[in-house]
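Quick one: structure for this chain?
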Amino acid sequence: MTAQNIVRFRFYEELNDFLPLRFRKRTFTYVFKPHQTVKDAVEALGVPHTEVDLILINGTSVGFGHRLHDGDLVSVYPVFETLDISPLVRLRPKPLRNPRFILDVHLGKLARYLRMLGFDTYYQNNLDDNEIIRIAKNQNRIILTRDTGILKNGNVTHGYMPHSQIPEEQIREVIERFHLRDQIKPFYRCTLCNGLIEKVDKREIEHLLEPNTRRYYQDFYRCRQCKQIYWEGSHYDRMNELIEKLIGASK
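Got it. Here's what it folds into:
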């Protein structure tokens, strides 16, 4: 490597959150290795490739495999929500038509919220990074994680890092990022195991109910997978209030 291997980088919008403070919202120089691709450089700076939608080098749209050259000006953009960039080299894969998720071990409450809103959400608190990536690839799932290392793996095609550490804000981020508002189906999935919920005849399960529940409620639902029983009690009202709060705030 020589002193001639220098480019200038500029990252835009939320991509700055992945950068060291000294590089945020400004143009800065970067010394690159011979034959280094722009993807390798972007990820070396801390930005996962799954967060990037467009790269311009000297004003021209390029792919991840483009090799850097001395003197290049590299502009890196996140997902465009309103601007049509289809004539350019769009770097992120097309959104999955039926979004399904897999979450890392630190996002348990977010997993519960996603299931409560009806989204197919794979979550176990003992999965390592390689297992998450393998399952995501085999089942066409979007990886949600706070670990940028997972998102930098070359086998990852769809992923997102919630910027907030607060679950209520994380679910709003995910709804907006993946345009999920029209696909929300509350109480469609079990929050415990992700199984589908269906109505069940009270006579089938009344022997499992507490006396007051059996006396005051008539309509019951059961998870096909784990057999968890649900009914429209006080917890149902609280969950409805939470859903309204989450959905309303994501408009």
